[in-house]
Design goal:
The chain starts with 5 loop residues before the first strand and ends in a 9-residue tail after the last helix. The protein has about 250 residues and is an alpha/beta fold. It has a single domain, classed as TIM Barrel (Alpha-Beta Barrel), CATH 3.20.20. It has an eight-stranded parallel β-barrel, surrounded by eight helices. Helices cover about 35% and strands about 30% of the residues.
C-alpha cells in the first residue's frame, strides 16, 4: 500500500492570533486561527498544526479555547504544540479537541515526558517537534522558540525521540524558516533516513516545487506550509494539484 504524502498547514498562534515571521523573529499578524483553519481544510489541507509560540500561561489558556473552537469545525487531524510540559498537559490538549500533541522544549529538559505521553495515549498522539540549526558543521537542537541552543545533535535527538515513543517528527530548519528558499533537503533526508517514524519537513516553503523536492529528494512524509498560504502567494488546492502532477500519492479533497 502506498502511503499518501501530506500537505500540512501550520498556524503559529500568539495571543489568539496567527502570526508569521522569518527565522522565528519579525512576527506579523496574519489572521484568525479558526477562520484560517477552516479555509485551509476547505481547500484540501490534510492536517492543521497549531503552535502556541508564546507558550505562556496566558497564551496556553487562549490556545485551548481556540483549539476547542477550531476542533468543532475541523474534520481533518489537528496537532497542537507549545507549552506542553507533561502528560497531564497532553491530556488537557487532547480533551480540547487535538488529535496529536507536539512536544519540543519539555522533551529536551525531560525526555521521559515522551514515554509517559506515549504510554498513556499511544505513540500516534505524540509528535516530537525539533527545531534545528546548523552550528559549526552539525545540526544543533534549539529550544524556547529557537532562542536557546542545546548541545544535542538533531539527528541523534530524533532517534532518541523515536526510541522514547514519539510517533512522528516535526522537523523545522531555523535557517530556512520563512525564507522561501526551499526546505533544508540535507537535514530532512538525514533525519528521515535515521528514523522509521514519519518526518514532517518544516521551514522554507516558497513554491510547489519545494514541496515536491522535500518529499521526493528529502524523503519527508509530509510538508508543512505557512507563509506562502497566509500571504496569498498560492493556495492549498494549487499545491496539492502540483503534488498530484508530480505523481505523489495525495488525498483528494472531500
Amino acid at each position: 500500500m502506498t502511503l499518501t504524502r501530506r500537505l500540512i498547514v501550520c498556524l503559529d498562534v500568539r495571543d489568539g492570533r496567527v502570526v508569521k515571521g522569518t527565522r522565528f523573529v519579525n512576527l506579523r499578524d496574519v489572521g484568525d486561527p479558526v477562520e484560517l483553519a477552516a479555509r485551509y481544510e476547505a481547500e484540501g489541507a490534510d492536517e492543521i498544526v497549531f503552535l502556541d509560540i508564546s507558550a505562556s500561561v496566558e497564551g496556553r489558556g487562549t490556545l485551548l479555547d481556540v483549539a476547542r473552537r477550531t476542533a468543532e469545525k475541523l474534520f481533518i487531524p489537528l496537532t497542537i504544540g507549545g507549552g506542553v510540559r507533561s502528560a497531564a498537559d497532553v491530556a488537557q490538549v487532547l480533551r480540547a479537541g487535538a488529535d496529536k500533541v507536539a512536544i519540543n522544549s519539555a522533551a529536551v529538559l525531560r525526555p521521559a515526558v515522551l514515554e509517559e505521553a506515549a504510554a498513556m495515549f499511544g505513540a500516534q498522539c505524540v509528535v516530537s517537534s525539533i527545531d534545528a540549526k546548523m552550528v559549526d558543521g552539525s545540526w544543533r537542537v534549539f529550544t524556547n522558540g529557537g532562542r536557546a541552543a542545546t548541545d544535542l545533535d538533531a539527528v541523534e535527538w530524533a532517534r532518541e525521540c523515536e526510541r522514547r515513543g514519539a510517533g512522528e517528527i516535526l522537523l523545522t530548519s531555523i535557517d530556512r524558516d520563512g525564507s522561501r528558499d526551499g526546505y533544508d533537503l540535507d537535514l530532512t533526508r538525514t533525519v528521515a533516513d535515521a528514523v522509521s517514524v514519519p518526518v514532517i519537513a518544516s521551514g522554507g516553503a516558497g513554491s510547489a516545487r519545494d514541496i515536491v523536492d522535500v518529499i521526493q529528494s528529502g524523503r519527508a512524509d509530509a510538508a508543512l506550509v505557512a507563509g506562502i498560504l497566509h500571504d496569498g502567494v498560492t493556495t492549498v488546492y494549487e499545491l496539492k494539484t502540483c503534488m498530484r502532477e508530480a505523481s505523489l500519492p495525495v488525498r483528494d479533497a472531500a
